[in-house]
């Protein structure tokens, strides 16, 4: 069985079990040539396990893995043509940066001139040329991670695997290196698979995101698609900070569909149902930035009145929690908003910006 030549990595019916524990469950995935795919999910969802299976660091229980159209399911990691960057820098402390970058190439018998050329090229791309003669102890965390990326880069691999490479860094350094990794991908156009639990990293880096839970992929789509059209309630709740606001109620289908919540009826005129129509128990989800206040709220199709419960100024914007209809709702307002705890407030929104999920299956309606 061969994968398409346009497919860099293909995973067919992959399963992995540790005793009675199923970690990956009949998983299928295709990664395009030159694509940046992010595996995103909470701890224990199987994302790092999947990456380690692709790298050959774990033996699978069932299924097949193809890289570049070649079945590598049982091949050694060194023969898979991949470069891997770990969460821990894993640098040899007794070697200089140059020694760390060249060590694997020397062991592989690569000619000295070619080693020099590869190390020089990687150092230039990563802007670590002044650091080549330093040892890891003399480097900052960001410099060490650049060196670790450089060690993968010198392999001239077609596929790069990143296992939460920025999680040990502080917020500012994480943001800076995130930009550098994005630029690195734009320069090289290599296939990259990146594991993270940080949704900001996922949204900013990925061509596509695979949301994982319980060893399965719940949704595989572009960041925009996942954010605006989540496949189910779990994805909707997982992506976005603050999380999506949910109202629990009932969909009343028909010629004038509406959502019934408490003593309110939300008109669903602008909502497009997946299968043409629906009725029954459902969850109505609306993101904080899709809710408006003030004069905009008074003109909105759906309005709720409540009280300000909490205010979180963030500079560029202000997060406001509102208590309405015995429910707490998050709203994202302008950074100059002057609302205070206890203020009466009207919030408004349009059902066309909302998402409806079946109460039982939690799938998007």
Automatic annotation (TrEMBL):
One matching Pfam family, short form? OB_MalK
Q: Does the keyword Transmembrane helix apply?
A: no
At the top level, the lineage of the source is Bacteria
Where does the UniProt annotation place the signal sequence? none
Name the Gene Ontology molecular function terms of this record: ATP binding
ABC transporter domain ranges (all copies): 9-239
* InterPro entries the record matches: AAA+_ATPase, ABC_transporter-like_ATP-bd, ABC_transporter-like_CS, ABC_transpr_MalK-like, ABC_transpr_MalK/UgpC-like, Mo/tungstate-bd_C_term_dom, NA-bd_OB-fold, OB_MalK-like
The UniProt entry, under PROSITE patterns, shows: ABC_TRANSPORTER_1, ABC_TRANSPORTER_2
Q: What Gene3D superfamilies does this protein's entry cite?
A: 2.40.50.100, Nucleic acid-binding proteins, P-loop containing nucleotide triphosphate hydrolases
Q: What protein name applies here?
A: ABC transporter ATP-binding protein
